[in-house]
Amino acid sequence: MAFFEISEPGEARTKEACSTAAVGIDLGTTNSLVSIVLGDGKPRALEVDEGSPLLPSVVHYGTPSEPGSIVVGRAARRLAAEFPRDTIVSVKRFMGRSSADPETRRLSPYQFAPGDSGVVRFVVGGERVVNPVEVSAEILRALRSRAEERLGIKVQQAVITVPAYFDDAQRQATKEAGRLAGLEVLRLLNEPTAAALAYGLDKRSQGTFAVYDLGGGTFDISILKLIDGVFEVKAVGGDSALGGDDFDRALAEILLGDRERTPRSVREAIDAAKAAKEQLTTAGSVQALGRTVTRAELEATIKPLIEKTGNCCRRALRDAGVPDGKGLDGVILVGGSTRVPAVGRFVREVFGLEPLADIDPDEVVAMGAAVQADLLTSESPQHDVLLLDVTPLSLGLETMGGLAEKLILRNTTIPTSAGQEFTTFADGQTGMDIHVVQGERELVADCRSLAKFTLGGIPPLPAGLARVKVIFQVDADGILSVTAREELTGVSQSITVKPSHGLTDDEIERMLLASIENAEADVQARLLIDNRVEAQRILKAAQDQLDHNGDLLTRPELESIEAAMQSLREATQGKDHHLIHSLIEKLDHGSADFAKRVMDRGIERALKGHSVGEFDQGEISPHAQKAYSALKD
Amino acid sequence: MIACWSCGAARPVNAALCPACNKVQPPPAAFTARDKFAFLGFDPGFDLDLPMLEERFRQLSRKLHPDRFARASPQERRFSLEQTTLLNDAYKTLRDPVRRAEHLLQLRGVTGEPKMSPAFLEETIDDREKLLEAKMSGAPLDELVRAAQAKRDEALKQVRALVVDGGDLRQAAEILARMKYYARYLDEAAGKSAEL
Question: How far, in Å, are A329, A369, B75 from residue B69 at the CA level?
């Protein structure tokens, strides 16, 4: 089956004749592009900067009072060396990140605004303070107005691509930048999925493919299955803070050596490193800052960075059900950094396949985005295709004891929703804190915090009786909204998660690498907390029973149960979850007979004229009821 | 049968699309109880034709996915989102033999967490200790992984026999609940062999 039919020339719909157009935008770390599908069904990148389709993602801020004080693209890049602080390069790396993020402490010439506001803020052009969303919006505004010039029509709608591994905060920030630039963001599309779309259409191929996307600042790996025009993403992985910029910085450190580090010298060293890296794609050695750099030297410098991508690849392959790449039909290279020969060699090694790079790795993402924009806006789209994407990271809630309860697992096809019921822990509790987290680890402290809110107005009830249902819904953009509802009263609150900062490097590294390294420790920690919570619950229930029905026990029986409770209480102070567990069991068994007698008393009372319903609801305390259920099964 | 919101024609309560006008319909209110087999055009059963399942999932996605409704009214967009969410959930449930069997038991009225037998729990603790020891000593895990896989496959076979031949469904639920333990065990073993 063909994915598209090329229209006959006579029938070609002339988009130019329409008054507005929907475009695809690749908002890249290093370069940004805008692409559009015209009447022949083929996406093409528009020339937007001095005759090139690549608009360097560089924004220069001059003196605010002067007209034309904001410059974007090549013109801005030329100003970077002279005005290193006022010229923001690779702003994408700061999207959705907080001012405390290690990204702000990497080698860079910028001046960050002080204060602990949630987001990173740059001080530029004297007094002006801008955040990454505003800087990105300048790039989008430039793309938009230049595309309008090229096309002669208004551009109001766009599909904007994001790294598949962008979290919720980074996606929200990107969408916000689009809105600031006056664009209706039709869809946030994952970059590797966009690339696969462009390839799938071009090659008309079927099968399972890996997309290895190493850009200026981000790394993504996606495994997709392509059948009959449906692109089903099976798994994604990556690192939203790893890319060609890191190669540049690693080499710049060497070039700088003992030299004095001023904003200017840092900018020069990074630029020289970048130029050297690019030349070394073909050359064996080059001169940089008066020093010879060989390809072998570059490769040794960046080796650990390239190897960081390997683990992500192996995990994604496993998640997609094609471990070690067996059963994979092809590997597609995307992103300018895949031009580095050592990267190509590494990919060949990991996947055991010769990678495909026949579509320009710089343009392929924007082309896929343009196809998706056409699909979403045309009465009769040029291509009959559908993209089914997934969540990159698991989404969950904080539960008792600082544990993350995952509601939606990573690599779940979106849109998706999941619900979970929680109950109150204390008597008369009227509010419940809902803490939404993203990540793979067991403990909340190791995951990324997305949002916190409080569901109030819960009717004061004994512990364990209120029923709070929390529902997560992830839409087709991969953005999460959360609703919490108390089922008895119908009190509800919902929010679209709007975090103010992003994953820190530390957190990403922890989440990506440590999640598996620490799997064992996580499980131990989880078991300990689970068992402690369970122990407290059962101790409380048993105490309630003793208070209300202690008269049913002989003295030795009472002492035996109390002793079992005391040793359990002591065990919860320790860290041995096996011990806690076995003492819970012991108490459970030891009080089974007691529970039976309590139950018999209840039935006896019911037979004496109380209804069973009455007994169920109030004759004994709710805790006792809970104790029944705990003891009985 | 209820009326289609758009054309008014009578349509089945569970129909995602109106048979008369093909418009996307709101999902039924108590959707949690919905038969996920029926949603994808299957009779409930333990065994399922997986290539056929994938094919039907793709066909329905083409009709229901929000991308197909980008230009539709907000109401239709909402219905599309809700129906696609259900579709994705049904597909996820049916393509996995354990989730599929759980859903099947749920449809047959077996609900709630089954009580695990003490013998099984004891065995699990022993197996875990062996895994932990092997990990500590750096011994190869292949043998342990194979043993756990064999137990898992055997358990699934038992569940199948009980479900297909009209056996005790409560017992089937108890054996099925063991799958979580096996999965966790195998995940832990895999965490090591991934060499991360």
Answer: 32, 18, 10
